[in-house]
# Entry
Amino acid sequence: MSELTDIIKKRRSIRKFKSDSVPKELIDKVIEAGVYAASGRGKQAPVVIAVTNTELREKIVKANSKIGGWAEDFDPFYNAPVILIVIADSQVSTAVYDGSLTLGNMMLKAHELGLGSCWIHRAKQEFESELGQEILSMIGLEGNFEGIGHLALGYPDVEVTDIPEIKENRIFYID
# Structure
């Protein structure tokens, strides 16, 4: 089995993270894998926002919990010290697909680097809110951006070793 295939098969969503900070060099490598994802017509619509600031992280946690309908003290990012937010220019017709590929690449790279990750939804609602506009303002980005997804990123605080069996009737050939 190739190294890439091994990474693809073994990567799992992590829902329990250590509080240890992640070095910027590793965050940069994860983001680099994301921004090199394929994009429709090469438009490179996705943008990645790395959040390591604890105050902003808490705002995002609270907003995400509220959108999801959870208790105020629930952390939908599972204590991950880093939140990578993928947004994309909403005027690009392939924005959601391109952003999804960005998130997928980052999850695979995180696993390769010994980090854990978990795709967290509700970025769309977040970037339709005042908080989303505040985040865009913080980074000096103007335009119409749609939230695609968040990536909780950090060191796993769980052991994940099993590779699940693939369900039947998922692959068909028409020769």
